[in-house]
């Protein structure tokens, strides 16, 4: 049962027009992300005529995430000076054009040429900037005492949008016979979604989503980038809860990244269809659906738990739970226990993310918030890329490895213990 205070918070959130519109910008954009990412997965990892090895899977993730991990921190100062309304609107307009170009390349040359990967890189990179801008803008439409509830709704709505986009992408792939043309059609529909999100973002007044000041000269901003990044780093370093939260979520992403690639390989090369449980892309979609259920559960209970307990305590509990689940449900290497594990790990991932983002939003001043969230987003990518590199070295092509599973479980346990120590308030 929802806590009465939580019900009151939800009513107030839905009565806030700015929150509803900003949420709409995110949901439509995330739905388009689901479509585009499904087209990438279908054409690169789960195409019937293309085999996937640990190295190829890691290279695919690294190709999409590494460049933005490198340039991501430099976008933060821009988010703290550019109007975030303009970033949200213009970014998705550009992304729509890039995705259409990538779709055309996919039909003409397939997903192996450099032009296709450059287009995919550009689309994903703009998406990370868009996500950071939206998160930094959220406190401008929600009061500080309702940020946890807002982030929960933010997560659930984003999940729903992503699930719809993924489902439509899978439907197009099924009807199109799992061809590159079907993947290209998914990308074109995704481009339409990006364009719609851009139109909705443009309905905000120019300064409604911050920051408090805006600089028109891009050259001047770029010149000051390094100095501003140093100031942002000092801001995080001066807030121990924020620093500890970033370190914990980075360690979590390392563990989660290796698990993700192992799961991808298991469904691609190890599992076979068993009753209602499917291998291949359909089975991977079942895992995504299970993780989505976990996300819903985490979003439902996190506001109440953190209100009665604390965000720090909930993060520690979630990571400790992940360590247990990796061993108990992962060791059998069967699809049914793995689906249950996906529910729990989905709750761990999203519950901890809600808490970490709320900590950052509450701890960091608005004038620094954009660069901190850009760094946070880049940390997500960089640690996942690091996990992909590790997975390429230690995972067999089947994805099955008892030692690696044990290391992942130990990693979650160490993260829980380390955050428990680092997050303590000084005497």
Describe this structure in words.
- The chain has helices spanning 4-14, 17-44, 54-71, 76-79, 84-109, 114-137, 147-175, 180-201, 218-223, 225-237, 240-270, 280-308, 311-330, 335-363, 366-394, 402-422.
- It is an all-alpha fold.
- α2 runs antiparallel to α8 and α3 (54-71) crosses α6.
- 54% of the residues are buried.
- The model has no long low-confidence stretch (mean pLDDT 83).
Helices and strands in order, then pairings?
Blueprint: H1 4-14, H2 17-44, H3 54-71, H4 76-79, H5 84-109, H6 114-137, H7 147-175, H8 180-201, H9 218-223, H10 225-237, H11 240-270, H12 280-308, H13 311-330, H14 335-363, H15 366-394, H16 402-422
| Number of discrete helical segments | 16
- Terminal CA distance: 37 Å
Number of strands: 0
Low-confidence stretches: none
What is the string of helix and strand elements?
A: HHHHHHHHHHHHHHHH
Structural class: mainly alpha
User: CATH homologous superfamily, by name?
Assistant: MFS general substrate transporter like domains
Major sheet attributes: none
| CATH level-1 class | Mainly Alpha
CATH T-level topology: Growth Hormone, Chain: A
Q: How many domains make up the 3D coordinates?
A: 1
Shape: globular
Mean pLDDT, to the nearest integer, reads: 83
Q: Approximately what portion of the residues adopt beta-strand conformation?
A: under 5%
Helix content: over 70%
């Amino acid at each position: 049962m929802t806590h009465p205070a939580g019900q009151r918070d939800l009513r107030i959130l839905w009565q806030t027009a700015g929150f509803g519109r900003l949420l709409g910008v995110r949901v439509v954009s995330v739905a388009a992300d689901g479509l585009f990412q499904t087209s990438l997965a279908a054409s690169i990892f789960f195409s019937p005529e293309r085999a996937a090895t640990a190295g190829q899977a890691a290279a695919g993730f690294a190709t999409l995430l590494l460049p933005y991990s490198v340039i991501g921190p430099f976008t933060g100062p821009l988010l703290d000076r550019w109007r975030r309304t303009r970033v949200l609107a213009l970014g998705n307009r550009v992304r729509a054009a890039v995705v259409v170009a990538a779709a055309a390349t996919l039909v003409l040359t397939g997903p192996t040429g450099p032009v296709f990967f450059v287009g995919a890189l550009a689309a994903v990179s703009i998406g990370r900037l868009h996500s950071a801008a939206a998160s930094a803008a959220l406190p401008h439409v929600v009061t500080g005492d309702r940020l946890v509830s807002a982030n929960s709704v933010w997560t659930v709505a984003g999940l729903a949008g992503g699930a719809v986009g993924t489902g439509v992408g899978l439907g197009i792939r099924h009807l199109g016979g799992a061809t590159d043309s079907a993947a290209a059609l998914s990308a074109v529909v995704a481009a339409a979604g990006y364009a719609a999100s851009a139109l909705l973002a443009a309905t905000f007044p120019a300064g409604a989503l911050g920051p408090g000041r805006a600089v028109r000269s891009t050259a001047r901003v770029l010149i000051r980038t390094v100095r501003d990044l140093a100031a942002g780093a000092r801001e995080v370093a001066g807030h121990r809860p924020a620093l500890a939260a970033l370190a914990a979520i980075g360690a979590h992403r390392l563990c989660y990244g290796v698990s993700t690639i192992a799961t991808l390989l298991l469904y691609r090369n190890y599992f076979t269809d068993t009753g209602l449980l499917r291998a291949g892309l359909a089975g991977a979609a079942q895992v995504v659906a299970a993780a989505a259920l976990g996300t819903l559960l985490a979003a439902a209970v996190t506001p109440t738990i953190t209100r009665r307990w604390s965000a720090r305590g909930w993060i520690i509990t979630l990571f400790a739970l992940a360590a247990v689940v990796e061993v108990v449900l992962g060791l059998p290497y069967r699809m049914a226990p793995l689906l249950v594990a996906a529910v729990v790990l989905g709750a761990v991932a999203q519950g901890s993310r809600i808490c970490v983002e709320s900590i950052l939003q509450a701890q960091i001043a608005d004038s620094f918030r954009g660069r901190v969230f850009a760094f946070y987003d880049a940390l997500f990518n960089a640690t996942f890329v690091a996990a992909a590199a590790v997975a390429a070295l230690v995972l067999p092509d089947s994805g099955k490895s008892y030692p690696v599973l044990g290391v992942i479980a130990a990693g979650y346990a160490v993260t829980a213990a380390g955050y428990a120590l680092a997050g303590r308030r000084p005497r």
